[in-house]
Design goal:
Layout: H1 2-24, E1 31-39, H2 47-57, E2 63-68, H3 76-90, E3 93-98, E4 115-118, E5 151-153, H4 160-167, E6 174-175, H5 188-201, E7 209-213, E8 218-219, E9 224-225, H6 229-238, E10 243-247, H7 266-269, E11 275-278, H8 283-288, E12 294-297, H9 301-306, E13 320-322, H10 328-338, H11 341-351, H12 359-369
Parallel strand pairs: 1-2, 1-3, 3-4, 4-5, 5-6, 7-10, 7-11, 11-12, 12-13
Antiparallel strand pairs: 8-9
Length: 370
């Protein structure tokens, strides 16, 4: 019931309250140099935006403005004020940059002079999203979350057709420039900083093979759940001394697990990870850039496939698939030995072709042309 009421609250905002605000502020002149970075899931710059955010701050022809709030934690009055502020900014901005669903952007018919750029927060293709997934957008939802997108930036050309169908937007609006966030994985200063922070946080990991468990959540953002934790707890108990296990669950699951989740962002942990264990999380595509072994632990595979569903053949991914918790330890112990390097490279080229360390430069060029 709570989720149902929240969805109808969003519908009210999208079809009445926010369009009226935008209309009231429509007298504002659009300033092409203004770039609004907007996200409703936290109060700091999301990792998916960080490289672009930093580089744009060094450009003389752009003015960046941050709009980062956790809508779920705001009071009704505070949320009202926040939304008024955004629609005021929206009415005068030349560019809006997103990396996740963001309802206010699609609540009205925007001016042609404002460009909306969706960076998205995941690369590759794996679990179904948007209109292809019942959990993402309920059948009773009114409106179109993607109606005002001018550009959706993806990791490779192979993603364009599927995401165009899932979001019901023209394929011409989907551009394979590569994910700006992945430029960080080619920055040795960033990687060394991540490793330094990791071993400062986990000094006991020194000299060991680091195993990272980074699962996605099941259900919805409003009612998330986790699968496989008991198996990971048992794995941690049985792992030989030469391994060190660290966990990083999805932000929606923080504080809802028995295993402590790392305080470091998952993307930072990848720099120190020797073996990744995940399930249906798109973090596996980021990890392909590091060319290291991964294990796909999916004890609920049949149920997940029938429910949310996948876009691709799960077994085609370059990692051993494990369904039985008893097979998890042997899989970890043989991960380095059985890694198929050629298969990994093929997957990286297919799903992350444009993530070559230069994605942000191409994105800035696109913003100047638009």
């Amino acid at each position: 019931m709570k989720i149902f009421l929240r969805q109808w609250g969003k519908i009210f905002l999208q079809i009445l309250f926010l369009p009226v605000l935008y209309w009231l502020f429509s007298f504002r002149r659009i300033r092409e140099e203004v770039v609004i970075f907007a996200d409703s899931n936290g109060t700091s710059v999301p990792f998916s935006m960080k490289v672009l955010h930093r580089q744009l701050a060094m450009q003389k022809d752009f003015i960046g403005i941050d709009f980062f709030y956790d809508f779920k934690r705001e009071s009704l009055f505070s949320l009202f004020c926040i939304l008024v502020k955004f629609m005021w900014l929206y009415a005068g901005a030349g560019n809006i940059v997103l990396c996740n669903y963001f309802l206010p952007v699609s609540s009205c018919r925007k001016k042609e002079g404002t460009k909306v750029i969706q960076l998205w927060h995941s690369g590759g293709l794996l679990k179904k999203i948007a209109n292809d997934a019942v959990d993402d957008i309920p059948s009773y939802y009114v409106g179109d979350l993607f109606r005002n997108y001018d550009w959706l930036v993806v990791s490779a050309p192979s993603c364009r057709e599927t995401l165009a169908r899932a979001m019901k937007i023209a394929q011409e609006k989907i551009t394979a420039l590569g994910m700006s966030r992945t430029d960080a994985y080619y920055d040795m200063l960033f990687l060394n900083s991540c490793r330094k922070e990791f071993y400062k946080t986990y000094p006991e990991a020194a000299g060991k093979q680091v195993v990272l468990w980074a699962p996605t959540f099941r259900g919805t953002a409003g009612a998330p759940s986790l699968v496989g934790e008991d198996a990971i707890i048992e794995l941690q108990r049985r792992l030989p001394e030469e391994y060190f296990l660290v966990c990083s669950v999805h932000p929606h699951l923080r504080g809802k697990t028995y295993l402590p989740s790392s305080s470091m962002p998952t993307e930072w942990l990848l720099a120190s990870t020797d073996i990744l264990i995940t399930d249906y999380s798109s973090i596996l595509f980021d990890y392909l850039i590091f060319e290291r072994p991964l294990i796909l632990f999916a004890p609920d595979f049949d149920l997940y496939q029938k429910g949310r569903g996948l876009y691709i053949d799960y077994y085609s991914l370059p990692g051993e698939v494990v369904h039985d918790a008893k097979e998890l330890l042997p899989a970890v112990q043989r991960a380095q030995e059985i890694m198929e390097y050629d298969s990994l490279i093929r997957a990286r080229e297919y799903y992350m072709e444009c993530c070559d360390g230069q994605a942000t430069d191409r994105l800035l060029a696109l913003m100047r042309r638009s």
